Amino acid sequence: MNLKHRLSFYSVTVFSIVILVASAAIYFSFYKKMEHNELLSLKNKTLLAAIYYLEADETGVVERETVIDQLRKSISRSNIAVFNDQNILVRGEMNASTDISTSFLNKVRSQHESNYITKYFFYNGLFYKDNEGDFVVITRESKSEFNQQLLTLLQILTIVFLVGIVMVYI
To answer: Model-level pTM greater than 0.85?
Structure first.
């Protein structure tokens, strides 16, 4: 192997290692930031759902209409569940047999708020004391858009990596 090819090989190897490490750091940092943003957004939606379902008897017509409008814009009612202190679904249209376990409901009660992530959904639970009793409000958000954004980032990083290797070798 002559000197020119050996230098090209070393350059490509060093570039590959540096770009792989940088790409991994970018990908995992983006993943954590996006996950944090999704859970924060879901936390706000959970509070909004709690106000909608549990404070209806205590709010005025104008306030109620505002909450209904915000709720419609932010989350589907099929992604909301409100459980009473006996873990019975009392409000919301989420299928209670999904991924919500009794241990998650108890964790929400003990910590007053908790998150749970499955393969297909982000879940947020909020313990809410009301004049009608103590409730756990659960909301969920699909991970499909989240996963699509991560896939797009992975494709971009892969293309940049491959183009970079070719350019360094040339």
So the answer is: no
Kind of pairing, strands 89-92 and 80-83? Answer: antiparallel
Instruction: Tell which residue, 123, 120, 79, 80, has the closest CA to residue 101.
Output: 123
Q: Which helix (H) or strand (E) holds 5?
A: helix 3-54
Confirm if 19 and 161 have CB atoms less than 8 A apart.
yes
Consecutive H or E run containing 133: strand 133-142
How far apart CA 10 and CA 145 sit, in angstroms, is 39
Q: What confidence tens digit (pLDDT) does each residue in 9-60 have?
A: 888 899 899 999 999 999 999 999 999 999 999 998 888 888 877 776 666 6
